[in-house]
Amino acid sequence: xxVAIIGAGASGLTCIKCCRDEGLEPVCFEQEDxxxxxxxxxxxxxxxxxxxxxxxxxxxxxxYFSDFPIPKExxxxxxxxxxxxxxxxxxxxxxxxxxxxxxxxxLDLKKATDFEESGKWEILFQELYSExxxxxxxxxxxxxxxxxxxxxxxxxxxxxxxxxFSGLKMHSHAYKDFKPFENKKILVVGIGNSGGDIAVELxxxxxxxxxxxxxxxxxxxxxxxxxxxxxxxHVTRRFMSLLPLPxxxxxxxxxxxxxxDHETFALRPQHPITGQHPMLNDDLPHRIIVGSVVVKPNVxxxxxxxxxxxxxxxxxxxxxxxxxxxxxxGFKFIDQSILPVSDNKVELYKYVFPPxxxxxxxxxxxxxxxxxxxxxxxELQARWATQVFCGKASLxxxxxxxxxxxxxxxxxxxEVLCFKTAYNTG
Length: 426
Hints:
By secondary structure, the protein is an alpha/beta fold. The chain has helices at residues 10-21, 60-63, 80-93, 115-118, 193-202, 231-235, 245-259, 284-289, 374-389, 398-409, 420-424; strands spanning 2-6, 25-29, 100-101, 104-111, 121-127, 137-141, 143-146, 153-154, 168-171, 186-189, 210-213, 220-221, 279-280, 293-296, 299-302, 307-309, 314-315, 320-323, 327-328, 341-342, 345-346, 362-364.
C-alpha cells in the first residue's frame, strides 16, 4: 500500500516512520531542498519559516518523538537551528531521506476515477530539480497524509484608511530579523506569540518605544517555572487533568499573576486562561515596565501617517506597521468539495479525518492549536491514521463523526493538551 505524504516537516517525518511501522510504503513530496518545514529558516520569503531568533515554546522533554529522545546536551528550550539538528538526527536514524522527494511541488490532489470503490488518489506534481521543471507528472496512491500545516497563507485584517497609510505595511509571515527595522517607529498589531516576540526584539533596536496593539489582551506565560523548572513541566502533570476546569483556571491564573499582574499591565483578557492560546514570552513584561514596549488598544482607523486607537489616542509619523494577525487555513491544491474550509475552519474528525469521504484514505495534520507540543500529537495522529489505512482501526459512521465535530464547535472541548504521561504509555 503506497501512501503519499505531502510535506517533510516534523509531522511529515513522523508519518514516514509510522507508515513503515505498519508495513506501508511512504513517498514524501517536499517542495524545498531539505526537511524541517516551518523550522527551516531562510532569508527568502519563498516558504513559511520561523524568524531568525525563534525559540520553541515547549521544553525538549515535552516535545520529543516517543522513540527518539532529544540529546541531553541540547538546551531545554531550543532555538530553531537546534530543532533542525534534532529533526535531521531523527530522519537519519530511521533512514527517512530515501523516502523523500526533495524539490518536488504538488500541484493538484484529486480523487481517482474509482475512488468510491478503491479510495485511491491522483497527485499531479512537478520535479523542480529536473531538466524540465515545468513538466507535470501524475501518480496514483492508495492513501494521502497531508502535512502542510496552517501557517502558509497570511491573514490580513481590514481597517478603515489602511490603503491611505503611506508607511510600510507587512505581515509577520515576511519578518526575518530586526535589521531592516532599526531606528524606525513601529506598530505591531496582534498579541499572539509572533506579536510578542517581534515587539520585544524590535524594542531593542528602534528609535522609540514599539507600540503593541491588542484587541482583547492575552495571558503571558514564561518558559521558566518554579525553581527554574520549565513551566510546561511544572503545570502539565497527570493530576491537573483530574481537576475541574474552573479550579484549573483559578490555579493557573494565580500562578501567572504572581509573575506580574495582567490588569496593571493592561493585558488581562476577558477569557479564562485556558479559553484561548496564551502567549509565551519571558521578556515582554520587562520591556513594558521600562517603556520600550507600550501596550495600546485596538486600531480604529489608519491615517496617512499613523493610526487612531479605540481609546481616542492617536500616533503619527509611523514608519512601519507589522500585522501579527495569524494565518488562513487553506489547501490550494485540493478542491473545496473534498476539504471545505469555512470561516477559517476545516471540519475534521478528531482533527485528522474529513468526515465526508467514502473511504478514509485522506488524513490531515497540523490543523490544531494545542496547549503543548505539536510533535507528539502529530506522532499519535500518524499512528492512528496509518492503522486506519491498513484496516487495524476503523472510523465510526459519518453521523457520529459529524456529531463529534459539532460537539467540539459547541465548546465542550476548549483545550487540547498534550500530556507527556499519557503519551509515554502509548
